[in-house]
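Reply to thread "Modeling small-molecule complexes from scratch"

Following up on the discussion above, here's a worked example others can learn from. I took a protein sequence and the SMILES for S-adenosylmethionine and predicted the complex. Inputs first:
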Amino acid sequence: MGEAVRHSFSKSAKTYACFSSVQDCIIKRLLAPLAPGFYARVLDLGCGSGNVLRALPDLGLRVGEFVGLDISASMLAMHPTTSLVAQSVRLECADFEKADFAPSTLVIGASSLQWAQDLARLCQRLAQRCQRVALAIHTSASLQELHAFLNTRSPLRGAKEVCSILEQSFKGFKQTMWVETFKQEFNDRESFLQQLKGSGLLGGGALPFGKAKALKHHAPYSTLSYEAIFFIGELV
Ligand SMILES: C[S@@+](CC[C@H](N)C(=O)[O-])C[C@H]1O[C@@H](n2cnc3c(N)ncnc32)[C@H](O)[C@@H]1O
């Protein structure tokens, strides 16, 4: 999945910010319980083009060192390199499943960790390296209208599996977990298709020609749903 995901987001890097209203909303919901506050070292996994860093001032969050890590160099090229609320910003192009993590006060993963091949291992490594963690992980109920139409299976895990992985991996942490659903409405097929293309969310795999054609001409376009598990963990 890794290379397909990297490719998909790299292709959408320039448009992602315009099509990420749901992800922006997720960031606000995820980080609100941690605000206001100062965090000495923040690691943002799958930081993309910088929506988390951009959201910090309005949320009342301040940071010492902010490290943004992403597998896509094109997404990182759109990421801000300074912020009024961060003393320093450093960007790293790496796969979060392979990178070494320095100890962090807060690790954030907003709409990104659902692409991990081995989520349990990644979370167990994070649990050893951070004091606090804030994750929003999409589930297989995301884009369900699309999968129903195409008769495809979501490449993502179901809610139960995600919750169980988080519960097990962050055992020594005070855990707060909840699930939220977001819906986007569209008036025409063109804006629906633009949303899918512009946001890079079809990252799991390329569509065969027949399905791509059906999607273009016949997709039911009124709604796109997203489901995410929200998780805040604090080392006790
Ligand atoms: C939906 S975007 C979310 C970006 C940002 N966190 C936000 O909320 O707007 C997912 C990001 O995760 C990154 N990503 C996916 N798999 C990754 C991996 N294995 N290592 C690092 N980054 C990854 C993608 O390149 C993409 O930028």
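What I'd highlight from this example: The first strand starts at residue 37 and ends at 45. Residues 2, 5-6, 9, 20, 23, 27, 46-48, 51-52, 70-72, 75, 95-97, 110-112, 115 surround S-adenosylmethionine (CB under 6 Å). Questions welcome below.
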